[in-house]
Structures are given as C-alpha cells and as structure tokens.
Amino acid sequence: MRTHALIVIPALAALSACVEPEDNPTTVHDLRVLAIRFETPEVLLNECNLGLLGGLAASAADGGTIAIPPALLEKLARDAARPLTMTSLIADPQGNGRPLKYRVVTCANQNDRRCTNEGDFLELARGETTGGELSVTVAPGAMLLPDGTPLLQEVITQDLYKGLGGFRVPVVLDVQTMDGSEHVYAQKLMVYMCRFFPTMRENVTPVLPGVTIAGESWPEGEVKELSGTDEVEFSPEDFTALQESYVLPSLELKPVELEEAWKVSWYTTSGTMSAATTGGVDFGGALGRQRSRWRPDVTLTTPQDVTFTFVVRDGRGGNSWLQRRARWTP
Amino acid sequence: MVSRLCLVFVLLSAGLARADEAVRRELVDAGVHIPVLTKAPELLEFIEADYPPEAKAQGLTASVKLSVIIDETGAVSDAQVPEPVGNGFDEAAIAAVKRFRFSPAEVDFKPSPVQIEYVYHFVLKPPEPDAGVEAPPGEPVDAGVKLDAKLVGQALVRGSRGFVPGALVICDEYPDRFATADDQGNFSLAVPSGTCHVRVAAAGFLVFQTDEVLAPNETREVKYFLIEKADGMQTVVRGKRDKKEVVRRTISRDEVQKVPGTFGDPVRVIQNFPGVARAPFVLGQLIVRGANPAQTLTFFDGVEIPLLFHVAGGPSVVNAEFLDRLDFFPGGFGARYGRAVGGVVDVQSRKGASDTWHGSAKIDLLDTALFFQAPIAKDVSIAAAARRSYVDALIPLVLPQDPQGGSLLVLPVYWDYQVRLDVGARPGTPRADGASDYSLFVFGSDDQLKVVASGGARNRDVSVDFHTSFHRVVGGWTYRRGNIGFKLTPYVGYDLAKIDFGLANITANQWTAGLRQDLEVDVSKHFTLRAGADIYNQTIVGEAELPVISGVQFVEFPGSDPQLGTQRVAQIVNTFDGALYAEGDVKVGAFTVTPGVRLSQAFITGQTRYAADPRLWVRFEPWEKTAIKGSIGLYTQPPTGASLVDPPFGSPNLVHEKAFQSSLGVSHRFTEFINLDVTGFFNRRFDNIINQTTPVQQPDGSLVTYRQTNNGLGRAYGLEVLARHEVSKHFFGWIAYTLSRSEEYRAGRDTEYRVTQFDQTHILTVVGSVKLPYGFELGARFRYVTGQPKSPLIHDYDVYQADANSFSGTFGASRSARSKDFNQLDIRLDKYFVFERWTLDVYLDVQNVYWAKNVETTFYDYRFRQEFEVPGIPILPVLGVKASF
Fold it and tell me: Among B813, B340, B771, which residue's Cα sits nearest to residue B579?
C-alpha cells in the first residue's frame, strides 16, 4: 500500500531531531573565533577597470597565461598597499586568560582555507594573545610571494571570475592553545574591488546602533540582572537606514543594484539562543526578522556571569560586534 | 455401486481463454515481435482413462490437473502432473492424455507447440436409475429417463462476478448428461425431477457442489459462484521467439500489489530486482547499474512519464490497479527504446474487462483510489481509475502545535486518473488475421503543495505554493496480417510546473506531441525484421518574475543575501527528437543473432545533435530450457532543452550522454515456475553531464558561465542473480542478489575514479508470498545492502569562514568509508473475505518488523567535530482495506 510515505517524512524529521547534536553554535563554551573584521572592509581600486578585464581576456585567449601589464600592476599594488587593521574576536570563556599562540597568514587560493599550500602563503604576523580582541595591522594586497610574484597578481590569476566579484585575498588567523589541544583556523577574505562604475563606493563597516532586551534599550557597560527560567528576547535597534545601497557588475558587465540586508549572529556563554543567525533575504525576496530569545541553562543551580555577543555582517565583507554582560540567578 | 468414468473434458475453452489472456498480454506489449496465439488447439480424439481399480473399490474420485504440451502436429509431446493426487489417478490420467490428438495450435498463424492445462475428473457413477420410468408425453426422454425439470443459470466467479465460460454442470445422478456454460457463463440442463447433486467444474476453479430438489416440470433459475483455485494457472504460450534482451524482468499486477514494504507501488517493486540499488528512506528512485535516477526512463504504454511520484515521496502516479504488467530492462534494451543511458521501465496499462463490469475501491489513510472496467459494446471495453488524496484535510488534525507559536499550514494535494477505451478483439478472443485493434488512453496527474508559516516567534515568514501536473492522450492502432505486424502510437500532452515563493514566481507550460511506429515482418523462418520510428516534440514556454540570481548573474560574496530588484524572464524552448530504429533476428540452429541500430537527430533550442547507436544481441539455446545471452551496444541520452538554453541558465555546448553497455548471462528454467538467471555486466559511461561551473571570459571582459559540462565519466560492473518462483497456486517470490561496483570520474577535477554515491557492493533481496488456509496470505521481504559510501571525517582543528559564519570539515579520501550495512524485514498479511459478488481484502503491511537501526544519511555538528547518523524508518505498521467486485 502506497500510503505512508507522506507520513514517513515528518516522522523522519522527528527522528532527525532525536539525533541533534548537543553542541549548540550559539553557546560559546570553548576556544572560538567569532568574527574577524578589516578596517576598512573593502579597498576600491581606481586604476582597475573594464580595460583590465579585456586585457585579461586577451591574455587568456592567447594561451591561458594571465599577463597584467607591469605598469597597471604597479598602480594596483599602490592602491592595494593600504595598511589595514585586522581585528579578531577570540572567545575563550573557559581559558581564564590563558595564553594563546597565533599566526596571521595570507595566500592566493580562496579554497586553501588554512593557507598552508606550499610556496603559496605568506606570514603576516605571529605572537601570543588571550581571549578577547586581537588587532594587527597588515597590508596583504602589497605582499610578494616567496618567488617574488605579487600576491595580488596570483589572486587575479586564480580568480575564476576575473575580479567581477572583487579580488578576494584570503587572510587566515591560526590560533591555538599552547598545548595544541584546541586549534582554530579562521579565514577572512579581504576584498579589493575594481571601480567598474563611477557610482561605486567603498564599503563601510556595519555597526549596530544598539541592542534591546525585552524591548528596552541595553546600553553598553550596563550589567543586567536576569533570573528564573523564562526566555528573554533580544533584538538590535533599528538599523534599516544604515544598510547601504551598492553596485556590483553582472557577469555581462552591467550594473546590478543591491541593498545590504544585514545578518546578526547571536552568542551567549551560558544557555542558548533561539536563533543563531537572523536577517538577510530569502529567495522570495522576504527580509527576516531580527530577534533571538535567550534560554537560560536550567540545569545550572548557581548564579552565572553571562556574556552576550552580537555580530553583524553586511554580506560584502564588513562586520562588527557588540557585547553585553548580565548576571543570571536561577 | 457401479463405477463409471466420467471425463470432464476440461474445459479446454476455459483454458484457452486463459491462453488468450496471455496472448492479450503479449499483444499490448509495445513491441510487435512477440508471438500471438492465433488458433487454439481443439481436441480431436479423446481417450478414456482406466479408472484405478483400488480407487474404484474404495469409492474414491479425483480431479487430476495436467500440464500438457502439444507439438506442432497436434500430438501430445509431454504431460505432467504438477500436483499429484495419488491413488493411481495421476498415472491413469497421464496415460490417457498422452494418447489424445489435437488440432495443431497456431502461433502467429503458424503451427506451433503450446502448453495448456487440462483437468481430468474421475467420477463414480451412481446406481442406474430405476427402470420403467416413462417420460410423460411431450417431455424429453434420455436413455429411458424422463427429463421433466430444468436447471437454468449462470456460472460466475465468486467474489468478482466474472463469467466462467466452459463450466461443466452435471447432476451426479445422471453423469451422462451435462451442460457447458457459454461465453456469458449461461447454461441449461434438463434433468429428471427429484434431487440433483449438482457438480460444477471448470479449469482453475474448485469444483462447486450443491443439492437441488426439483419438482416435476420445474425450471429453476440458479447462479453458481465458483471459487478460483489460485492465480498463475494460465496457459503459457511458448513461442519460438524468446526475448532478445539479456535481462528483461516482468512483473504482474498480482505481484506488484503484494510485495511487502512497497506500498503496492509498481515502480517501488522494481527496486527489489537485481541491478537496482536501494534508494534512501522509502523514496522510489530507480538507481540502475550505477546510473543516476534521471538516466533511467519510465514509459506508460510507450509514452514517457515526466513525473514518477506524487509530491513529497508519495505514491507513484501509475495507479497499480491500472497496471497490466511491467517490464524492466536494467540495460541492453532494444533499439525501439532510446534517450536513456541507464535502464528502461515500460508499464503496460490494463485493458477493460470483456465479461461484465468489475471494479475496486481502496481506502487508506491518505487517499482513496477507485477502479472500474466493463465491456460497453461488442468488442468495446473501457477501464478507468482515479485517485485523490485527502491528506490536506487530515494534516491540520495531526500537525503538531507550531513550536514557533505562529500559524503553520502544510497542504499537499494530489490526484491522478487513467481512462482507457479499447475497440477490437476482446481479451480471450484470438484476433482474426487482418483485423485491427484500436485504443485510446488518457491519463494524468496533479500535485499541489502549499506551505505557509507566519507569525509567532518565527524569524522569517515562508509562503510556498507549488503546483505541477501532466496530462497525456495516447492513441493506439495494432494490426496484423500474415507475417506482418504493425503498431502506431500517437500521443499529445500538456504539462504545467508552477511555483510561487514570496516575490518570486516561475511558470512553465509544456506541450508535447509524439509518435511511435513499430513494424515487424517475419521474412522467413530464419529472419525476422523489426523497424520503426520514435518522434518526439516538446515546446516549453517559461515565464518568471524573480530576483537577480546571485551566483548565476553576478558573483556572490560568501554569506551574502542582499536585497535585490526583481526581473522578468521569459524563455521558449523547443525540442525535437526523431529516431529511426531497425533490428533483425537471424536464426541459425540454436543461435539467434540480432543486430540493431537506432539513429536519431535532435533539434534542441536551435541546435542540432546526432546520435547513432549500434547494438547487438546474441542468444544461444543449447538445451530447451537453457539460454545463454549476450549483448553489447551504445546508448545515448540527449541533454534536456532547458539545459541547452543560453548562459547563464544553460550550457549550449552540451552533447548527448553516452554509455557502452555490455552483458552476458545464462538462464535456466528448472520447473514450470522456477527459473534462475545469472548476468554479468559492464557499463562504461562517458560525456556524462555534470554540474561544473565554468566561467569563460570574453574579449570585452564579460564572463559567460556554463553551469554544466560533459566532463563526467563512469563505469559500473557486476554480477546479478535472480532465482524466481513465478506466481503459482500457493506461492510467488524471488531471491535477488547483486554484486557490483559503480565508479565515476570528473575530468578536470578528479585524479582517479571514486565510487559513486549510489555504489552498493552487495544487494540481497528475498521476497516471498504464500497463500494460507482460510483466505490468508502472508508475504515477507528481507533486504541486506552494503552501507552507503561516505567520506571519513577527520577532526584535528576547527576551520572557520568568518565571512559566511560557517565551518568546513576536514575529510579523508572521498567516499572511502561507508555507513553501516542496511538490513530490514517487512511483512504483509492479507485476509480475503470472498463474498458471492465481491471480495474484501484487509491487510496489514509492517515495515522494519524488528526495528533495525539503519542509517540513511550522515550529518555533522556545526564545527564538523562529530558525525551523526540519521536513522531510517522505525517499525511502521499500515492497515488498509480494499474491496473489489
């Protein structure tokens, strides 16, 4: 009898729920990298235009070897040499300030998520740090690979889309405990975008204007007192006006008008958040609501200091975060 | 007591009716090269058997069923008793029947050997009636007995009201007098008044007995309902031309509906044959010899079905009630089939009943299906079926409370229908030479799925409205004269696919027209030619209002979901594919060699594609019941029209997918019901279409992105074993085992072959169904399958992508590990309540009886530190009811 395939599907969904992992992405309980931002998040290359792309195409047609005119490459390198502040948000809630060792490396291949391909990466910084924010100043766009090839040229060579999505230079933060028992590679793409159209503007870091708790504003530095097992709803203060309009080239080199739809990621050091990430636009064009509910860990019997982190991303490389602290009693 | 042998000539006509049923089944085969019984054998010389003395002394009677083979001259070449009754009856019946003489049967108008069933009844004659009874004036007298009463009635099948032509009606008291039922089951028997121990016998039925006490001059009208013994007692036509294909699995409606765990779904039943990999969960995908499911085509009466299953893993759109039989070719199929590099499934619909009207109603939790068939005029019959789900009404009752606190609406609705009108020879009647059969078949299916989730604590409102349907009208003209057979199958169709999702909506209207023509000519005893055409035209008019598509029309940034303007897209896609085929059987002694070729030319979105597929089959029959078969051939499948449109949505450079298929096998029939088939195969696929984004920069710097390429390569090889017990009186079942390996390679990406996601080294399926006393039938299916390939997870560190806010995993060699092996037992218990005019079937189908914890897929925690296995279905009992009449 054909009956119950339709029934089986919800049954399977229920079963899937039965094997759901206990490790919730919103709960920060060990060494994590929650976000990495560059300031500025994007570098607009003024000397890079459709002429460059045409040159790349002609080079490719000649036999696949990308040949960028040295003079043009020099101009690009000058624009791309801008020093950038790279700030990483490292969470180590159980570390109690333990030392962590880190490296910052860059490479040309986006798919090399750890930047470890031999001869194709460069170390930008290394040292020791602790949980919290780690800032280093780097200029990946100006780096030369060990064989003397400009990193940016190699990025262009390896880019399937020849810069139509920007030249994306991978920068990897490699952070681990001293004994190596916890180890994270975190990749951030630094975007060097050609100014294809005069209306293009360099991306600006998105910043949440604030966050509300149960509908009330929660200023920075205020430690909230929370208690009981009831859920508490958080939402960002309205940032609609801050979302930028921007232009990208289509694959046919026509301008595509877009508007940022920020996404917020929600983290807590105790309990869980109902939604890990909110916002963005679905395929049907609908915007998601920006809110998430905190669920206390009801198994705990002692008061807890809880840190909430709200990371906002603009969907084009820019991001920032807010943190709030609370004291929860069962 | 004086004993006397009374032979009940069995009802050869009934047996032949069944023979003709087999013939009819052959006729509906879309191929025209299948033998047809054009003249039934007639008994010319009857030999009375010797009544076994000891049995006679003990007053024993018996009915001996014989399987009789009649040679081309009409002589009995063999007679066997499949189910001996003992007491000397078997030997006596065999001895007599072997001396029978028949008129030669004709297959395709040529004298041919056939096999029939014959039942020999040994009946003791009661004492002679008292002498001196004179018949009154005006009343018939027979051997001095006054025949002053009459039994007038009809012999019918108990539970379905079908006629029993040829049923023999006697009074035990007067065994020399009997009446034979006509085509409508009607009979009239004049007997003396008084008690008549009525006995009604017919081939394939239990002997019906009752007492009638008749008053003088009484005419009593009666209806006798005979109980069918069992299925599978049909006469088998043994034509000289066996199927050329190395492997052709055929399954009947009876088997389809009784295999446990398949929901009575014909397509799902095929999954239990060798060469077909297990599909995950209860999905009905056909994964044949390593090919992906889209490379195996399913035809309904020769017309390709665009959609196999109703929405969300529901039942197949082919209503099992409308199925006559189903042929499955896992590879090496004939030249009349094309546009597929995997396998072919050909479902044949059911012709309407020729005796009286019949039907069935099936009700279960999610839908109701009705089936009806009847003769509507001389040589005109109709059959119709319809099904409609009501799950949309039930789901709100069982849907769990929305955990988000908002409103949640999930409404799947599906329905399908089939109507078939036949004009021509009725089932059970040989078609006259030069006569034509006509048919008109209309079928279709419709699915809608609406999901609306909004409000509450939900972070995103969802509204999806999905609608798809198809309709087909198929004509048929079958003609045969002398050594020429011809069949023409024109068809037209309309399909709709529509989806509304928020601001986006996509609509595709598709019109289809096609024609199949098949011709067969028996040129000589040594050569048969088959040829035909297969023409197909399709026009898709697509319209869409949707946002600019990131990743397709511009380069997306990881994790980006920006707000976009919408665009209107309209596209017309024309596809024409015309094919000619020819193949010929060259017979020399025990060898039959069949070379064939299929040539096709396709015009797809303004582009032309050609294909020439040479194929060769060889069959060698060293012994009567043994055949060694081999085949090699090239098979091609054109890209779809939609895949050939201009970038960025299509890839105009695509060419036909191709497969070289070869197989070698041996089959042996051990008994009338038991046969064994062992086949080895090697398939090499190339120019496989795979998703592989390839941006190509143009001189002006713009990019043309091709979504798909022909860079796929594949190979599959293995061994298939099928030991099958065909439907018999008490049992049907099979043991299917496949040992295989399926590998793939993507040029430009892979460095070596790796197993496909469908690779399953060992596939063992055991199916059996046995009839039990008191109307019970018990079926079981056991499956053991090697676990699915997967890549081993290695976690030494976290790898985080800060832009997309996601992690990626680190894995070992691709698909170098496997999930644990799959095993499952399903059972089905039917209880039949056979009433005089209808039958009720109450059944319990239990899947995963011992609740095996199988693994259907694997997922990972968000940091890819641990694997989690998604279990398969738990124990799943399903109760259903089916009434038929």
Answer: B340
Note which residues in 208-227 of chain A have CB less than 8 A from chain B. Answer: none
Length of chain A: 330
Closest residue in A to B796 (Cα) is A183
The predicted pLDDT at position B241 comes to 40
CA–CA min distance A24, chain B (Å): 8
Q: Is A101 exposed, middle or buried (0-12, 13-18, 19+ CB in 10 A)?
A: middle
The H or E element containing residue A154 is helix A151-158
A255 touching chain B per CB within 8 A: no
CB atoms within 10 A of CB A287: 16
pLDDT of B206 reads: 79
Q: Is the pLDDT of residue B28 over 60?
A: no
Over range A220-229, report the average pLDDT: 94
Structure tokens belonging to residue B864: 């890819």
3-state class (DSSP) for residue B337? coil
Query: Which positions in chain B touch A277 (Cβ < 8 Å)?
Result: 805
> Radius of gyration over alpha carbons of chain B, in Å?
31
Read off the pLDDT of residues B584-614 as tens digits, 9 standing for 90 and up: 999 999 999 999 999 999 999 889 999 999 9
Q: Which residues of B60-71 are buried (b: 16+ CB within 10 A; e: fewer)?
A: bbbbbbbbbbbb
Q: Is A50 on the interface with B (CB under 8 A)?
A: yes
What is the SS3 assignment for B391? helix
> What is the β-pairing status of strands B762-772 and A319-329?
unpaired
Q: A250: distance to nearest CA of chain B, Å?
A: 4
Q: Which residue in A57, A165, A185 is closest to B697 by CB distance?
A: A57
Q: How far apart are CA B885 and CA B877, in angstroms?
A: 27
Phi-psi domain of A162 (left: phi exceeds 0; alpha: psi -120 through 50; beta: other): left
pLDDT at residue number B754? 94
pTM of full prediction above 0.90? no
Looking at residue A73, its pLDDT comes to 75
Nearest to B711 by CA among B737, B748, B659: B748
Task: Say which of A11, A113, A161 has its CB closest to residue B703.
Answer: A161
Q: How do A167-177 and A132-138 pair as beta strands?
A: unpaired
Q: Where are the beta strands (DSSP E) in B215-343?
A: 219-226, 249-252, 276-277, 287-288, 297-300, 303-304, 323-329
Phi/psi region, residue B679 (left: phi>0; alpha: psi -120 to 50; beta: rest), is beta
Tell me what pLDDT residue B608 has: 93
| Cα gap B149→B189, rounded to integer Å | 9
B826 CA: distance to closest CA in chain A (Å): 12
How many Å apart are CA B569 and CA B551, to the nearest integer? 17
Q: Residues of chain A with pLDDT > 90: what percent?
A: 64
Verify whether the Cβ–Cβ distance B703 to A7 is below 8 Å: no
Cα torsion angle, B242, B243, B248, B253, sign:
negative
The arithmetic mean of pLDDT across residues B285-296, rounded, is: 88
| Chain A contacts in chain B segment 690-719 (CB below 8 A) | 693, 695, 697-705
Say what the pLDDT of residue B315 is: 82
B815 to chain A, closest Cα gap in Å:
20
C-alpha–C-alpha distance, residues B277 and B290, integer Å = 8
pLDDT of A30 > 50? The answer is: yes
The whole-angstrom separation of Cα B5 and Cα B440 is 50
CB contact, 8 Å: A161 with chain B? Answer: yes
Whether A284 contacts chain B with CB within 8 A:
yes
Q: Which residue has the higher pLDDT, B355 or B798?
A: B798
Task: Name the phi and psi angles at B238, rounded to 5.
Answer: -105, 85
In order of A103, A140, A193, B309, the CA distances from A81 in angstroms are: 21, 7, 13, 58
